[in-house]
Amino acid sequence: MGRYVIRRLIQAIPVLLGATLLIFLIVFALPGDPIAAMFGDKRPDAAVAAVLREQYHLNDPLLVQYWYYISGVLFHGDFGVNFSDIPVSEIMAGKFQVTLNLALTALTMEAVIGVGLGLWAALRRGKATDTMILASTLLLISVPTLVTGFVLQLLLGVKLKQWTGLDIFPVAGTFAGLRSYLLPGFVLAGTSIAYLTRLTRTSLAETLRADYIRTATAKGLSRRRVIGRHGLRNALIPLVTFLGADLGNLMGGAVITERIFNLQGIGNQLFTSVYLREQPVVVGIVTALVLIYILANLVVDLLYAVLDPRIRYE
Amino acid sequence: MKSTSTGVLPAEGGLGDHPLLAVEDLHVEFRTRAGVVRAVNGVTYSVGPGETLAVLGESGSGKSVTAQAIMGILDMPPAVIPKGEIRFRGTDLLKLSEEARTQVRGQRIAMIFQDALSALNPVFTVGWQISEMFRVHRGMSKGEAMKKAVELMDRVRIPAAKQRVHDYPHQFSGGMRQRIMIAMSIALDPEVLIADEPTTALDVTVQAQIMELLAELQRESQMGLILITHDLGVVADVADKIAVMYAGRIVEHAPVHDIYRRPAHPYTKGLLESIPRVDLKGQDLYAISGLPPNLLELPTGCSFHPRCPYRQDNCVTDVPPLHTISGTRGSACHYWREVVDGERQ
Amino acid sequence: MSNPTPPVGPGLPEAPALVTDTVTAPAPPRHGKKAKSGKPASLWTDAWYDLRRRPMFILSVIIILVLLVMSFWPSLFTAIDPFNARTCDLATARQAPSAGHLFGRDNLGCDVYAKTIYGARNSIVIGVFTTLITTLVGGLLGIVAGYFSGAVDAVSSRLTEIFFAIPPILGALLIAATFRGRANSILLVIIALAVLGWPMTFRIMRAAVITAKNQDFVVAAKALGASAGRIMFRHLLPNSLAPVIVVATINLGVFIAAEAALSFLGVGVQSPDISWGLMISDARDRFLEAPLPLVFPAVFLSITVLAFIMMGDAVRDALDPKLR
């Protein structure tokens, strides 16, 4: 176990550096003067520009600039400042809570609905229920978030209230506590729910064909115990890893959902900064999200070792 | 499951007139998209307390399917049992309700599988898996059940059982894993133990140890043992009687020594002649010609006729009944007399 | 096509589908008669036979054909040219559907139907070209990495790990945002999506090649002294193509959805070019009062994505019945 953990940690380091470098390069390798960009249409004073140049290490090679940046991020939580000298970490703070709430709501829905539907389908394999569930996963995968977002907002957010007077799902812009995350959470989780349903179905169906399931039956255990204890415990392994890895994915995907539902999270901030061409904020947010993504994957790898003894003792 | 299911469990104690376990005219077929696979076509055999029945046959002969039918672990569908009885102490298991069958499974009739690595659950410790029998069926506490598991592991002679009870299946060698499988199956002192090719996946030296262990456990507990194998060599020392299966039928059954001395079916004879023997070194090894039958389209008449050196015209058209040779022997061959006399036509 | 036998034997009552995979008895051959004639159907012939009788496949083919015609000759479907500003009339903004304007008018008083029809082209162009690039780059690198294990494989595998650490929509957003205005917006979307998309194809191709590499016929070809290039493209490629084609088909749909997302976020296709994502973005502000200008492009977008994913699903099921 110890060796496995250490190996995974070491493997994560080049990935982390590589991914953040890639982001850095994409944004800052562009020809053009970032200082000029800072001042927009005005021409900066030469002396001021020189000071700024020094302050932001702009005279150094790009790789050195990257190193200043990433060591600041990793060791001091310093994501740099925007053009108005406001720390990017300050801009992000508070916004992250909203996105995390959204992603966790989505993850919960994913786990409950996805695993539930998948198990149901697996136990009714080849029957009408199974076919129905499979068809709906196809639909859920195919209809883009963009579309489900607006359509559900119209149907459940607006029309439901108009028709029945029930105000279950608050509309964009109005905030009503955790309840306002329900609809966006479902929209964000949509595709993942479908994938998890399919994964659960194949995983359990495959597990139930295993020899040790036959053994469990031969031990005289009830069908409930055979499936619930011997089958599920094994089928769960790929599902947990999928769910863990998806947390990072959901936070990345939140940008569209937050736009649709006007949630003031990190995704919406990213959109605004892209619109305003605030490169430092854009890089900061994307870097932070990628770090979360890598971290989530690392946790999953470790979780995997906990769940599967064959990995633990390799 | 048949519709006329009852919840009456087979009695314990004295057997009366009933054999311990008797399979009677059992048929099993698999209804697949490619057609009906007739895996078992009228098998009859029985085993008594302390008795060892070896069921011999190549893969696809229906020997494992019969065993799975006895255990009630066939996937139904696609498997269907259109005909036959499996009587345990006089009660037809096929007529029992699913709950009643679950009471028999594992507690009174247990089974060992061929590949212990895949037959044991990879994510639970072996101790957990053995003690589960006591926790579920005997309502024991975790600690008590675990103590029992250690005792059982000692009994099947796993060294350092007390420590190894917390290990996972993949941490054991093949032979040790099979011992764990055996420990789990005898946990609740079953009356019948079915061993489905228990040694096929193991080294030759380990094979002998496992067979010895099974024989010893059987002597101690007087359980009936059904030993399924494709290897004639394995059964010679331990079996009391042998049933040879071909294409889902018993083609010959006899006490073990009679079979080795004078086989009464051409297929058995072919099997015996294809065993390498030291005293016949240098001679060509005999091989049964042709291929095992396609279970989707069984040959007409005697299923063995396309491969049979004794074949006559009526073999192609008439299914041979199981001729009684003596009180304890039978052969499903029209020309069993010629086979016993050794005259090849 | 040699005439194949229906998989259900004569005289058999309708056997439930999907039963074969749980059989514990010797598995019967999938097509009884074909195996006997000694001419086993190839993977592709078998799959094609299977596909032709799948309603989902046929439906997706029809939808895709219609979309192709729509993107090559949009004028076949509508007489209105949405690029002509004179067809728009602010006074009629958000007008409900009528005989002349089937889908009504949008916020600028332009015909929604004509725009939706013309929007198909960019979706298809972006989907097809992104798929082509990712499949070529990822596939080629995948073959090479899979065939030459060692340094080549190690380097390219680490490289894909780095790309995999960036959520695709974020990475594409970053690229598209950075280069916005510096290149043709459609080209930019294709590049942004391709940069993030190729590692997936790489991984699948590499895994398939590694499996194929150890098969006897490849080992034999190697032993006979066939060149690396010959082994890769004559032996490994045809035997590893199936999963790549499945993923390419599905990805085509995914890329189309991603284009819409980027355009919705303002970094994709730019006006005056037409894109469903852009239409959704434009209609969003007045969506709750006038949903139709948003709903129509959304429906077209969904059906298009659905068609490709459905086709990919069908092809996968046909190629590998075990996955069903």
From TrEMBL, chain A:
ABC transmembrane type-1 domain mapped to chain residues: 96-304
UniProt GO BP: transmembrane transport
Cross-referenced SUPFAM superfamilies: MetI-like
Record's keyword annotation contains Acetylation: no
Keyword annotations of the record: Cell membrane, Membrane, Transmembrane, Transmembrane helix, Transport
Pfam families cross-referenced by the UniProt entry: BPD_transp_1, BPD_transp_1_N
Membrane-topology annotation of the record: Multi-pass membrane protein
GO cellular component terms, semicolon-separated: plasma membrane
Subcellular location: Cell membrane
Primary site of residence: membrane
Transmembrane residue ranges: 12-30, 102-121, 133-156, 176-196, 235-261, 281-307
PANTHER family in the cross-refs: DIPEPTIDE TRANSPORT SYSTEM PERMEASE PROTEIN DPPB-RELATED, DIPEPTIDE-TRANSPORT INTEGRAL MEMBRANE PROTEIN ABC TRANSPORTER DPPB-RELATED
UniProt record similarity statement: Belongs to the binding-protein-dependent transport system permease family.
Listed name of the protein: Peptide/nickel transport system permease protein/oligopeptide transport system permease protein
Organism of provenance: Nonomuraea jiangxiensis
Organism ancestry: Bacteria, Bacillati, Actinomycetota, Actinomycetes, Streptosporangiales
From TrEMBL, chain B:
ABC transporter domain ranges (all copies): 21-272
Keywords associated with the record: ATP-binding, Cell membrane, Membrane, Nucleotide-binding, Transport
One matching Pfam family: ABC_tran
Membrane topology: Peripheral membrane protein
Gene Ontology biological process terms, A to Z: peptide transport
InterPro entries in the cross-refs: AAA+_ATPase (IPR003593), ABC_Ni/Peptide_Import (IPR050388), ABC_transporter-like_ATP-bd (IPR003439), ABC_transporter-like_CS (IPR017871), Oligopep_ABC_C (IPR013563), P-loop_NTPase (IPR027417)
GO function terms (MF aspect): ATP binding; ATP hydrolysis activity
Cell compartment(s), UniProt: Cell membrane
Family designation: Belongs to the ABC transporter superfamily.
Name the record gives this protein: Peptide/nickel transport system ATP-binding protein/oligopeptide transport system ATP-binding protein
Organism: Nonomuraea jiangxiensis
Automatic annotation (TrEMBL), chain C:
Main location: membrane
Source species, domain of life: Bacteria
Residue ranges constituting the ABC transmembrane type-1 domain according to the UniProt record: 120-312
TM region(s), chain numbering: 56-76, 124-150, 162-179, 185-205, 240-269, 294-315
Membrane-protein topology: Multi-pass membrane protein
A matching Pfam family: OppC_N
Gene Ontology BP term (one): transmembrane transport
UniProt keywords, alphabetically: Cell membrane, Membrane, Transmembrane, Transmembrane helix, Transport
InterPro entries from the UniProt entry: BP-dependent_transpt_permease, MetI-like, MetI-like_sf, OppC_N
GO CC, alphabetical: plasma membrane
Subcellular location: Cell membrane
Family: Belongs to the binding-protein-dependent transport system permease family.
Protein name, per record: Peptide/nickel transport system permease protein/oligopeptide transport system permease protein
